[in-house]
Amino acid sequence: MSEVVIMPKLGFNMDEGKLVKWHKSEGDSVSSGEVLFEIHTDKTTMEVEAVTDGIVLRLLVEEGEEMPVFTPIAIIGESGENPDEILRKYNEENGIETDEESGEEEIVEETENIEEVVIDTDLKLTPRARRYVKENSLDINSIKNIEGTGFRGGITEKDIKASPIAKKLAHKLGLDISTVEGTGVGGKIVKDDVQRKSNILQEDHTKRVKDTIPYSGVRKIIGDRLSESKFTAPHLYFSNDVDTTNLTKFRKELNENSDLKISSTDLLAYALGKALKKYPEINASLVGDVIEQYESINIGIAVAGNNGLVVPVVKNIQEKTIQDVAKETKDLISRARVGKLLSEEYNGGTFTISNLGMFGIDSFTAIINPPELAILAVSSINKKPVVKTNKDGEDIILIRPMMNMQLSVDHRIIDGLLAAEFLGYVREILENPIKILM
């Protein structure tokens, strides 16, 4: 049975996926349940299994390409089946308009149904390749040495044009790709060719380019979502310093009596669970014209991973012990850093912590992770002079380990008084950490 494999949608916010690796090549047999390919979603890399048995008749996407979800990326069928006919039927059944139907393809004689159209006595091109040559005004002689991979050795569009990464880079740099000389197989233009051409053009400029990195994939998704958050939700910021003297002692005592190491982030997450239970108005989201308050307290923990910012989520923290949270965060964070989280493990948060204390940051503000209403930025612990009142009512100066917290809230929903009370209660818990377990 033939099947058109599509780019799967593996998360609510996933609009496109990047084909990282094919585990099968054209002509290989594949069985249901075997890993067919790997994709990178907005946050993680996942293996995708085949759901049918057959032969890989055609791979429609190259490794490194980013494609919208539900886009056909491969065709599986039986030996001898025509992959173009399978794809045509799929497009017809799903109401997908092809280039030919939209009028962009030049009308070709019935030989189009055979896959290639003879351009001269020695050269055969597929219809799409023919169109590509025409649209880009390519010299036929310049592609004669390309080894065709189409039917009966015909040259396909994929054989001629630049690699997807090279095209994207050229577009980003504003470079006409037809002016680039390819050094790939058969003269194919690759990323390094585009970069080399760009560097040559930059030689006479005062600002020379060392390298270019396409603004795409995870970095673009993060940028788009945070831009939407920043410009849609009016942010209001609140800052407070926490004396961590008791918190540090408390953590030390816990670790002396526990087989599992409990981190400061674990204690922060657990304390926030208590605070959000007391202030459920903050444990909420704006969904359309409705404010949804949640019984579940799902704390996201921002992690800098290999593929950008990832926010694994500890679900239903209100139902767990501090040891449960420590075990879960350790596992989630370690897998987040190498891009091995499942989509459900970084979705569904109701509040987020961004802790940069380990990097020596004195203070910073964070952008709310939509559709949540607030995020807490936690900075490093520094010894500072603090004014205290002694038992005699006198003000004295003491040196205390102080930690800065910055709360960002969506001012459409959360008023200043509520945010101030919430942050004050978080400080109260952290400075009296026995309350974390009460």
From TrEMBL:
A single GO molecular function term of this UniProt record: acyltransferase activity
Record's keyword terms, sorted: Acyltransferase, Lipoyl, Transferase
Name of the protein this chain belongs to: Dihydrolipoamide acetyltransferase component of pyruvate dehydrogenase complex
UniProt family annotation: Belongs to the 2-oxoacid dehydrogenase family.
Organism: Anaerosalibacter massiliensis
GO biological process: pyruvate decarboxylation to acetyl-CoA
Xref: CDD domains: lipoyl_domain (cd06849)
Chain ranges of the Lipoyl-binding domain: 2-77
EC number(s) on file: 2.3.1.-
UniProt-listed InterPro entries: 2-oxoA_DH_lipoyl-BS (IPR003016), 2-oxoacid_DH_actylTfrase (IPR001078), Biotin_lipoyl (IPR000089), CAT-like_dom_sf (IPR023213), E2/Pdx1 (IPR045257), E3-bd_dom_sf (IPR036625), PSBD (IPR004167), Single_hybrid_motif (IPR011053)
Listed cofactors: (R)-lipoate
A cellular component term, taken from the record's GO annotations: pyruvate dehydrogenase complex
Pfam families to which the protein is assigned, alphabetical: 2-oxoacid_dh, Biotin_lipoyl, E3_binding
Signal peptide as annotated in the record: none
